Amino acid sequence: MVFETFQQLFYIKRFNLNDSVTFFELFKNQFYRWIMWSFSGIPLLFFIYKDVHKETENTRIIKYCAIIFLSVFVNILLIASISMLSNSDSFSFHKFYSEYFLFFTFQKVPICTLGYIAVTIILFLNFQKELLEIEVQDLADIKRINQELYNKLSLTNANKAKVLSIKVGNKIKIIPVDTIIWIEADDYCANVHTKENPSYSMRASLKSLELKLSDDFLRVHRKSIVNMKMAKELKLVAKPYLLLSNNEEILVSKSNIRVVKSYMDKQ
């Protein structure tokens, strides 16, 4: 606005068109013309915001060009109309077109068009930046949630027992859990069957042992927990059972078949 005002003032003084005109009078006229330019570009802002999430397409570029052309036309029409009214000229289409519309077309179209193009690019990139910031924040939230879940699972697995301490007579027998084949409920005790010894009896419930042991130990029946690493296959017969590495057959309750199958499918 300041540049155009000085430019206009220069030509007026240079060719002695009007000695009484001042900078502020010319600046006022430039100001309302740029206000009209901003007002005419509102539809452009709306369409950019609406289309920013879409991928770049040739049809959208054509649409933006059409909107810019229309915005420039409306802008020139408004400026010419206000200028004619402010000069108190009697209205006629010929005079309006030849003296005002054509004059502002040659004077304003290039800079108005370039202005709208610049605004389109800046706004589009700005909206794209906001969308990318939202996506980055979403990814950061997902990363944080996954990290928290990983830490929780790591802590859970770290707390799982690596050995079982079983009292045998006056001694405490240490049984590595990876040697356990399966565990059988026996009243208030549990019989721990291992690869090296038929079994050890310990004072514990299956429920408490289930919480202690790793995810490889599945409760396949109300009376048994199986180390699935020791299971060879699942037999889906009338009474389903697991065939273990020592060829023992452990019944699987119907309510636990899905859990067992899910475990085996992941291996």
From TrEMBL:
Keywords: Membrane, Transmembrane, Transmembrane helix
Superkingdom classification of source: Bacteria
GO MF terms held by the record: DNA binding; phosphorelay response regulator activity
Domain HTH LytTR-type: 164-266
Transmembrane segments: 31-49, 61-80, 100-125
Hydrolase in keyword set: no
Protein name, entry field: HTH LytTR-type domain-containing protein
Species the sequence originates in: Polaribacter porphyrae
Organism lineage string: Bacteria, Pseudomonadati, Bacteroidota, Flavobacteriia, Flavobacteriales
